[in-house]
Amino acid sequence: MEKTTTGIGVLDKAVSIIEACAAQPRSLAELVDELRLPRATAHRLASALETHRILRRDQQSRWVIGPSVAELAAFARDPLVDVSTVVLRKLRDATGESAQVFVREEEVRVCIAAAERASGLRDTVPIGARLAMNAGSAAHVLIAWSDESDVRKIMQDSAFTARTVAGVRRRGWSASIAEREPGVASVSAPVRNRRGEVVAAISVSGPAERIGRSPGTRLSQPLLRAAAELETHL
């Protein structure tokens, strides 16, 4: 994905660190290798972001997105986010699994709302997480109704095929097992605006062992009802 630059070096570097840690937990060595930053610079900026609670450390001492990001995001009013919070809680309670809403930003998908299963094994996707568009049922849905050149571009480095995309268009939902992460299964459906354009994907995800080898069989109907409820509010 092409990076936006402002010409303010320290700001651009700090933002690149935030985006990297939003995609997945990063160690100092990983930040240095991926962002091509001097070790001292990467450590100084990541530590400063940690002080401001924009980043935090996980149990392996890797940097991940911190609590202040969610706190600040609460001030960014988005009708889709507001409605999703209520709908996802109902979907979580109906399915017993974690639920999320994703929107696409170029070559990544961003989790803008989530409702986590209260206990037991679960697939935790934090709000603000930026995941690649090359794997997972939500990615299938977000790409399926794009123009063909966009589909071809994403599929150059994807874990799914043109047959997958065709199936999404035919069924109106998609499922994946261990495609984004080993042991995780998910089912996703499109959320459309009043013009019929896909603006988001709503998903249910959890351990493949519990969800089963055919996750769509059990989860597609409550998922489609939740998508329809979101569309009604939008």
From TrEMBL:
<dbReference type="InterPro" id="IPR036390">
    <property type="entry name" value="WH_DNA-bd_sf"/>
</dbReference>
<dbReference type="InterPro" id="IPR005471">
    <property type="entry name" value="Tscrpt_reg_IclR_N"/>
</dbReference>
<dbReference type="Pfam" id="PF01614">
    <property type="entry name" value="IclR_C"/>
</dbReference>
<dbReference type="InterPro" id="IPR014757">
    <property type="entry name" value="Tscrpt_reg_IclR_C"/>
</dbReference>
<keyword id="KW-0804">Transcription</keyword>
<dbReference type="InterPro" id="IPR050707">
    <property type="entry name" value="HTH_MetabolicPath_Reg"/>
</dbReference>
<keyword id="KW-0238">DNA-binding</keyword>
<dbReference type="InterPro" id="IPR036388">
    <property type="entry name" value="WH-like_DNA-bd_sf"/>
</dbReference>
<dbReference type="GO" id="GO:0045892">
    <property type="term" value="P:negative regulation of DNA-templated transcription"/>
</dbReference>
<dbReference type="InterPro" id="IPR029016">
    <property type="entry name" value="GAF-like_dom_sf"/>
</dbReference>
<feature type="domain" description="IclR-ED">
    <location>
        <begin position="68"/>
        <end position="234"/>
    </location>
</feature>
<dbReference type="Pfam" id="PF09339">
    <property type="entry name" value="HTH_IclR"/>
</dbReference>
<protein>
    <submittedName>
        <fullName>IclR family transcriptional regulator</fullName>
    </submittedName>
</protein>
<dbReference type="GO" id="GO:0003700">
    <property type="term" value="F:DNA-binding transcription factor activity"/>
</dbReference>
<keyword id="KW-0805">Transcription regulation</keyword>
<dbReference type="GO" id="GO:0003677">
    <property type="term" value="F:DNA binding"/>
</dbReference>
<feature type="domain" description="HTH iclR-type">
    <location>
        <begin position="8"/>
        <end position="67"/>
    </location>
</feature>
